Amino acid sequence: MMSIFVEVGWDSTRGQPLDQFVFDCGSGVAANYGAMNIGPGRMDKIFLTHLHADHMSDLVHIYCFGPPADRKSPLWVWGPGRSGVPNPDYPDKSSTQYYEDGTNDFCQHLRELCRWHSESMSFETTAYTAYTAPTNWTLPQPVQPVGGEPTNDGYSIIPMELDWDQGQSGDQVAYHNPDTGVTISFFPVIHTRKGSIGYKLEWGGLTMIFSGDTKPEQNCLNQAINRPPNDPNAPGRGVDVFIHEMVPAPQIWAMKSNNLPSLPDENSPGVKSMVTVQNSSHTPQGAFGYLLSQISPRPRLTVATHFPVADDTVESALASVKAHCKVYRGNQRPAGAADAARLTWSFDRMVITVSKDRIVEQKGVADPFGYSANYQAPPGTGLDGSGFLTPKYWCTDPATGTPVGDPYAQIDTSTEINPCGTDGCHYAVDGY
What we know:
The chain has about 425 residues and is of the alpha/beta class. It has a single domain, classed as Metallo-beta-lactamase, Chain A, CATH 3.60.15. The chain contains ten helices and 18 strands. The strands form five sheets. It has a seven-stranded mixed β-sheet, covered by helices on one side. Strands 1-2-3-4-5 form a five-stranded mixed β-sheet, with helices on one face. Strands 13-14 form a two-stranded antiparallel sheet. The protein is globular. The two termini are about 40 Å apart. It holds the Pfam family Lactamase_B. It comes from Candidatus Thiodictyon syntrophicum. Keywords: Hydrolase. This is MBL fold metallo-hydrolase. One of its GO terms (molecular function) is 3'-tRNA processing endoribonuclease activity.
């Protein structure tokens, strides 16, 4: 269930990072983000590597509950364009059917899917008056929200579809913000169906790569070597953090997936199934080691993701990696290299802090009884409700004569048990 939250720099006047992003958002990650005090207002730019559920399903939660919380502005969603894979079951063999399976299509249908939710929550304010739409970002396509909402509304989704087939060179820009100095580019990878992509983020002389899910392939390798664009003969600059998927050997994968006490037979159906999935979609641990052996200079920190971390699985995988790339010794730093060529495995709430002189790995400590992230008021608004636009479902406050959200606009109260009735008071309106 993959997701990575990235923040860069710090704006002391706002008390927030200069820029921030979410890469993928599989099921359950919103709970971890809330526990780590990352609220919806900080998750307004989502970059999807592909449209598998374990990489996008919590987008429903992030989208739906963002506007009632502190994201009173559009949700931006980057992701791959249509796969272009023909439907082999199309009955008319004289022609070809292609599914509408790109990010624009996904966002359009997500908006329709969540209509009941978004309307039901729109007795609360979902936009603010001081919102300014960005005009100087470099983007891959025109800004065109889906669903018909105003472009300043929290329930507006703005898809940014990436032409994965044009990203071979690795210099295709998905996002560039001159105000914050962040550039995010993309490149195609190989995973189950045409259209899966990886991302490279660059800021302040630091670089991060996230492969998403992929078989071992050349584009990730080239991106990790990180030569200057359009100069194939230049020496590589390397990357600071190289986040790449790795899966265990099919026997181990089948054993863990089926809770078996020992390795199953290589010819068993479960192992054969894992081999098929691996061949379609993923990087086995030996191939991961070979890939690292081809990268020079080495990434300062390599992070294996999408891997079932346990003592036995890591020991097996590290042996395979070291057989191909002996410079890596788990988290142990090679002699004479204070902070180079480290390899680690990802886990929930892992925190990696990167600067030019060092990289620190930590574990985020979260309140086990935490409720939600702190509310961060959008610029130009106040906790007293000032600076917000009138909700979609509103009425006139009889005391002030001003428009306010109407919680009764969409419900039938004929069967409601009122706090006070003809037979006495039943409960207190203050909630206690």
